Model the fold of this input.
Amino acid sequence: MFAENDMVEFKREPSKALMKTVIAFANTHGGVIYIGIEDDGTVCGIDDPEAAMLAFTNCIRDSIKPDASVVVQCEVLEKDGKQLVGVRVERGAKRPYYLASKGMRPEGVYVRQGAASYMATEAEIREMLKQAEGFYHEDGRSLQQDLTFDYTRKAFAEHGMELGSAQMRSLGLTDEDGQFTNLGLLFSDQCSSAMKLAAFFGTKRTKFRGRTETEGSLLKQVEEALDFLAKYTDYETKFVDMRRVDYEDFPPDATREALFNAVVHRDYAVPAASLISVLDDRLEITSHGGLPGGASMEEFQMDVSVPRNPKLAAIFYRLGLIEAYGTGIVRMFEAYEGSDVAPEFHITPNLFRVVLPNRNRPPEGPLVRAATHSLQETAAEVDLGNADMSAPAEGARQAAVNSELERQEQLVLTMIELDGPLKRQAIQERTDFSQATLLRILKRLMEKGLIRAEGNTRRRVYAAEA
Done:
């Protein structure tokens, strides 16, 4: 099936508005724009593709900074006797790319999510700048310098390790001037980068079994999180070869790997808590920060490690909390071998969610699938000159529509869960949705009991259901 997705865009005719899509592709994972195709996939063609191609490339040079023309290739195609222009945009090396008229601000920088381009957040812009400069947030000097390390020192002592001034310097907890770094803040007793944990009855977030919020050193937080998960996750007793075996709902290895992966790869420049939810049919762990360093999900599923916080990961490794770098995702899948279910991943440019299904209670319906797309599959789909652009069957077309609606709802729901309550305008400013589209998404989420509206029309905000 050939349809719009995170790396394919259809447009009837060239326009300056397409510069947002070029920027979004260049800032994310690249993609292809087909000019001369309606949004529904109908080939309409364009009258003078050569002139359109020239005007389009000139517009890119004039409208986008840094110069994005070096990552753009245009080609005239023919389909159903009509001529098209195919525009292939590679992921750029000089990100963030932005509209010259708007500058390097959220209203000028765009990224791609699903079949839409939306304004980047300030955190996303900072992340792109850090990647371009090779800067890690953990290396920055902490704004808070009155720090203590009682819990971390105790944890180090239990592993036969010291944590004096020399060790703190070598580990990166202090800088060359003896000042505490952001990494030092994360391991201090004053760390405010919390985790919110909740357990619910049933498969919806309507009635709490228990909830808590962690604080202090990351080592203390992960210990408290593991204790919470041990308390609110169950097991099923089975008999194997006449022996009683307790078969946990969520494989312990997968649970630990998912938790530590969220801690190690979280974007701590964003002052918002990670969310951990235990429901009857699944365990969800959501943290800020998409795939670091522009890595793809395919690379994460291989033995490839691109830690957002390499010094934090090194400390966890020395304490024996994580295995060799790059094996966490693989170990999660291995923990589910022999089960009818497997881990799932929901990824946006600034969020990462791991869903561990209950292997003792398979869900009645499919869980929301990850908004990821195989780069190999996409490359095959958008092969200029060889793409199959035949109209899909009605059933397949409807499935694509349903999948896109699901991705839109997941994007808005996760945004509200982590940063809410939010006004409609605040949500709209962070997406490419029109007001009418966003209102429909919010209505569907309320009908499903996932969010609620609070306040009158002027002051209305949307909050996740408890």
Q: What stands out?
A: The CA atoms of residues 180 and 187 lie 10 Å apart.
